[in-house]
Amino acid sequence: MNPRDPLGVAVVGTGKMGADHVRRIQDVVNGARVSAVVDVDAERAKRIASGIEGCTAYTDPAAAMAAADVDAVLIASPGPAHEAALLTAFEHDLPVLCEKPLTPDAASALRVMEAEVRLGHRRVQVGFMRRYDAEYMKLKSLLGTGQLGRPLMLHNRHRNAASPPFFTSSMLISDSVAHETDVTRWLLGHEITAVQVLRPRPSASAPDDLQDPQFVVFETDGGAIVDVEMFVNCGFGYQVQAEVVCERGTARIGDGHAMVTNMAGRWGGTIAQDFVERFADAYDRELQTWVDATRRGEVTGPSVWDGYAAAAVCEAGVRALEDGVRVEVELVERPEFYL
Ligand SMILES: NC(=O)c1ccc[n+]([C@@H]2O[C@H](COP(=O)([O-])OP(=O)(O)OC[C@H]3O[C@@H](n4cnc5c(N)ncnc54)[C@H](O)[C@@H]3O)[C@@H](O)[C@H]2O)c1
Ligand SMILES: O[C@H]1[C@H](O)[C@@H](O)[C@H](O)[C@@H](O)[C@H]1O
């Protein structure tokens, strides 16, 4: 790749997230262009490619990654397809931004980690975009000053307006609480050591057989207790909040409304309806950071180790949900490569 040319990105999976990332690379991010789109749905890939000059549609990720105009890969296919796409990207030694989850379970995440270690250099940034959200970044930097003292508890609320039809009770953990596993590890700098899942009575608005909401409790190796209210059919909007309780004070994010109006005897604001709206700035910052680092030949941001740790916590969480017991998280020793 000529350093003056834009980074040619292959986007694998062009559904809700992939299509939004295609738009972002083309219209928002500097220094990159979409040179390939890949989807098992050939019509969808063709439709998206047809709107972009110099973009080729593929149904096979391996064919796209072998193309001369592909310098990097953004994986936005469903979680179970990530391992194969990551291993193919490693064969071509291509830098990758992989949407969360890295993979849906710890064993497959470990295989990806071993393959990256064998490659000898980091290639993957995992799409835990909350690390790029302005409010979370402020909270992280406040905790870093030490002014509040040591964190003792972290309360999280994660609400979606409605779940997609394919959503299962275990996906509330593996697909959604996955974000709080990363937020907890990143904000507190602790590993999560045990998980419990309490089951409030299911909301009448949730589909039959979906255990929604769930109340998840993490213990950490730093002695903190973390709770997550996970509610994917709350009906009113998309809401993500976090409050850290420390020895000398507390800090809370997620209450912000862009605009408050006074009208007809009432005041108030609006609530985002989905993640694409709530985290738009975070996704923009995440992608720009990835493109800039890739162009410098570096890899920054959440690593495969972070993706593996999140997968291991979620796997323990799914067992805790199914068996109704406290489950300890077992992690392999962290390779020096990721220190
Ligand atoms: N960071 C976030 O906030 C966030 C938000 C939503 C989704 N996600 C993640 O993004 C990924 C995609 O989610 P989505 O909501 O866009 O799903 P989606 O179902 O809308 O889209 C997935 C697309 O991938 C295609 N696909 C399926 N298998 C494939 C394969 N093997 N190779 C290529 N394409 C394949 C499907 O045809 C579909 O077009 C998931 O990992 C999900 O967890 C992240
Ligand atoms: O895949 C999505 C995505 O990760 C969102 O950020 C989260 O709020 C949803 O619960 C999850 O289903």
From TrEMBL:
Chain ranges of the Gfo/Idh/MocA-like oxidoreductase N-terminal domain: 8-128
Catalytic activity: myo-inositol + NAD(+) = scyllo-inosose + NADH + H(+)
Gfo/Idh/MocA-like oxidoreductase C-terminal domain sequence ranges: 140-329
Enzyme class, UniProt record, top EC level: oxidoreductase
Pfam families attached to this UniProt entry: GFO_IDH_MocA, GFO_IDH_MocA_C
Keyword annotations: NAD, Oxidoreductase
Enzyme Commission numbers on file: 1.1.1.18
Sections of the chain in a coiled coil: none
Family, as annotated: Belongs to the Gfo/Idh/MocA family.
Role this protein plays: Involved in the oxidation of myo-inositol (MI) to 2-keto-myo-inositol (2KMI or 2-inosose).
Subunit structure: Homotetramer.
Protein name as catalogued: Inositol 2-dehydrogenase
Organism listed in the record: Streptomyces prunicolor
